[in-house]
Every structure is written in structure tokens, then in C-alpha cells.
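Minutes, project check-in
Item: structure for the 362-residue chain
Input as provided by the requester:
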Amino acid sequence: MLIETELTAIYEKALAREPLDIEEGLALFKNNDLVSLGTVADTLRKMVCGDLVTFVIDSNINYTNVCVSGCKFCAFYRSKKSREAYTLTLEEIMEKIKKAVDLGATQILLQGGLNPDLPIEYYEDILKATQERFPHVQRHFFSPSEIHFISKTSGISLRETLERLIEAGLQSLPGGGAEILDDEIRKKVSPNKISWEEWKKVMVTAHSLGLPTTATMVYGLGESYKSRIKHLIRIREIQDKTGGFTAFIPWSFQPQNTKLARETYMSSTGVDYLKIVAISRLILNNIRNIQASWVTQGTKVAQIALFYGANDFGGTMIEENVVRAAGVKSNYLPPEKIVRLIKDIGRPAAQRTTLYKIIKEY
């Protein structure tokens, strides 16, 4: 067990916003004093972000569930021949966006499976139509895995793919597909998906073209503490190079209805989640915003996460399908309920944009 002075030195280094290394990160994971860890993370959060808790009114639309990746942790995807397979038409997508806009959405997160039958023009048409019909909504579309797949199936470079999508109206990228940025884990749970280096290449290229992105982490896939720390440090190193990440969003693997649940995975608790959030705040010294995931953890744990380093409550999620497919009831959380949840813990609340500009304070 670590002696107190060793942990104190790590905490002091983190509060000075100096980068922690792998061994120091491992020491934090092995430490069982959740109270002290949370106190330090909360102190750092106050230093960096103040007390304001933000959220965005958004919807997560999935344009297709057809996917050739076949990740073991995913309950959402279907094969092309499945009776449950679908691909939305342009008008169906526009109808879903209109529904979200009518409820006040300022961000649309559009993602889908890796569907080989969709040409790049399909994605361009969606972007152009969204920009034309809903110009004030942030087009936060397509994960790095999708971008890489579109590039591959279209036979054009990654850079050209992104340039064409930007020309069509792409404004930012979600950070999905990161899971754990360690190929040892990725080969076990998602062998047909991009490598961590390919994920990095998409992000670095996007940032070089002026596209801001988020970064994510799905833990509980059977990875070691060391893999988790490598993931966080790799994100920090990309941010050092590009400065393009607007936020970090960790959540736990949801096992129901997945292949991985029938094999082996790390069962996760609320305590595990709070530890992940706190350690993320200490290691990611160059990313300002850390989101609490009420969708996977529930609103009560998400409230507590705001005292463990998180400063953002995520989105309202007018629509969400991927986590729901794994058996999690992720119903729409209206803005007024989010504001009440934030104010109930004595913190001020504000609606924000995708890029963290304040729209309205409550």
C-alpha cells in the first residue's frame, strides 16, 4: 500500500497541473482512499472551471445500424441481412433533426455503423441538407471510426475525406470509437475496428483542419489499470500537439445483449466510475471540460461526479439508441430537470453550445 507522502506528492503535482506519468497514474488507481482522490480532483476542477455546471440540448441520431465491425461490446449493430437492419433516408434524418430542434436542440450528434453500401455522397447530402434547413444547429457528426471507413470505402485519403465533409457542412467530430486506446485490448474486443494509431490520425488530421472534437473512453472491457492510464496519457499527448479536444467523456461498458458479456469483462460500480472521473481530471491537465455520464450511470451518480472532477452534465439526449440497445433506460432528460439536478447540489447551471460557449445561465 502506498504511504501517504507518496500520494501527497502526486496530488501536489496534479494540482500544479504538471503531467503525471504511468506509474503515478497506477498509484492513483491502486489507492483505495476515494475521499482524498475526490477532494483533490474537485479542488482542481474549481481551479480550472469554477463552480458553473454546463449542459447542452442535443440529440444522438443513428443513421444506420448496419456494421461490418462486429465489436464484441456492441449490442446495437446488425448484419446487412438481419431483419432488424436499417438505414435512414435523408428525409427520415431531417424529420428526427426537426423534432430535436423543436425541443430546443443546438447540437445534433449523428453516428452510425460501418455500412459498406453507403458512398461518401450519402454523408455529404446529410450535411448539406442539415446546414440548409437547420443552420443554427451544430453538426457534430461521425466518429473517427466512421471517418476512417468512409475514406477507405471511397478510395480517397483521410484528409480529402474530411475536407469534402467540411465543405458539405461538418463542424465537429464526436470522440466515439476510442474505447481503450491500447491495441492489445482492441484486438480482443474489436479486431475489425481501427487501431488506436488510426484513431489518433483521424483526430490529429481533423484538428489540423480546424475541426474541434471530443475524446472518450469506454472502460470495463477487460483492460488493466495500465491500459487505462495509457489511454488517458495518449489523449493528453494528442491535446499537447493539437489543442483540438473540447472535452473528455468516460463511461462504463454496458454488457447486456453483447457478445463480451458472454465472455469476460470487468464489472463496474459507481465507485469505479467516480475514480475514473477523478483520475481523468488529474491526468488530463490540458483538457478543461470533463462530462458526467448520466446516461450510463444514472442521474444520482452523475451528480456525485460533479464533486469528483466533472464540470459538465452532458446532453439532454432527446434520442439515443446505442446504450439503449444494451438494456440501459436512457430516456430524454429535459433541460429543466438537468437544471434542477445541478441546483439541488448547490451549483449554478448554464446551457452551453457544443464548443462550450454559454447560451443561458439559470
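Outcome recorded: Residues 225-242 form the longest helix (18 residues).
No further action items on this chain.
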